[in-house]
Design goal:
two-stranded antiparallel ribbon; 480 residues; alpha/beta; Alkaline Phosphatase, subunit A; binds zinc ion; 41% helix; single chain; ten-stranded mixed sheet; globular
Length: 480
Amino acid sequence: MKKFTLTIICVTSLMMLFYSCSNRNSQKKPKYIFYMIGDGMGLAQTQLAENYLDAVSHDTATTHLEMMKFPVLGTATTYSASSFVTCSSAAGTALATGHKTNNSLLGVLPDSVTPITPISQKFHDEGYNVGIITSVTLDHATPAAFYAHVKDRNMYKEIGYQLKDIDFEFFGGAGLRGLKDDIGLYDSLKANGFVVTCDKQTILDHKMSDGKLFAYNPVTNALPPDIPYLIDSRNHDMHLPFYVKKAIELFEKDKKKGFFMMIEGGRIDHASHANDPGGTLGEMMDFNEAIKLAYEFYTRHPKQTLIVVTADHETGGLSIGQASTGYASYPELLDYQKISYDKLKAQFKEMANKDVKPTKEEIYNILYENFGFNNGDPKMALNRLDSLRIDFFYIHDFDPSRMPKYGEMIKPEIYRTNLVSVHNMAGLAVRIMSEKAGIGWTTGSHTGGAVPVRAIGVWQEKFDGCYDNTDIPKKIYGDL
Ligand SMILES: [Zn+2]
């Protein structure tokens, strides 16, 4: 009897071993990988964009964000090694390497010196073509987490020096923040074999045989040097989908090799830091166009492609629904917003610095033009509290010598309203816009909730369920 039991155990073990081996073999590593990260894109940011599409569409059955069509949805926790609320460099490190680190460290362990290899490098070492694409500068936290190792994410010059030695085939985005510390950074990239260009035609004509490409959007003097928000776009701007399209075109021709592409919707975060609803929506739509391109590619190579769409954290504490509108929600009103918080703030600052200050009527007219306030749509009518707040910030921004007296008089009523993160007239404008649309914000920083992970293609089933952000690169690379 004992012998018989032993035989059964042995046979069963052998069968299990055979099954697990054959199962592993059948799950071949994806050849083409799109790792798409919406910076600051919590569940509420995706829901806002989805609700907007729903509200403006007459055919809700077919109008969805591209990622909503993906068959697998999971969630990932985002805490860093030093806080439940992560920053982008700790989260980027987790998403790129599978290791937790402290806020503000980048590509190194919490000891701040030990470098950690990102999966982009591992894939490259295995012969994959690699592309790093973003709507912010290519030395910013998320993209840099895929190639650099520094003890402070703001060490842009150092990050730039490390970039020049990287052999990835494609970098596309908004240039380098490090240029302000070292004007020679582009020359050192060129000296190390990069074609560095912001000329659209040169980028379009570029072939793999021309060498590794560093393509960036033309910069203006205005800081930050990121690609302008979609809501403020200028005719010549090259947005996220432009670079994604180019990278796909280059890599798809190289049939022998697979590719790994990290694509970051980097300014969803910036607009959400500013609590800017139209800015956030525009960046979500820009990211959505990039996801559409990845999905089109997937339909051509469904058996070899994996697309993973996730976020590093949520920004702004965005909520669908807020106090003064209760259960009502009007995301379609965001169509009235024509300018981002950042651009309006710069415009107001310039006006405040002039010798002749703008009149209150001029300011009201700018708000009417750019946000649709009092445009005849009853939902956009400014109420007494709106006007009171606008009058308050008019004094605050343009006539500050009157502030103490005026501020004291008006403060109690003003401060009964939700003015968290509102510091100036531009901030108030996007806050009133949010309120009209039924959108709330709780912070000008990040929040610590879990983020959605959506997947389609080879290995999609791995992304089902609840896990940690450090598990995502392990699932993509095949360690998990
Ligand atoms: Zn952020």
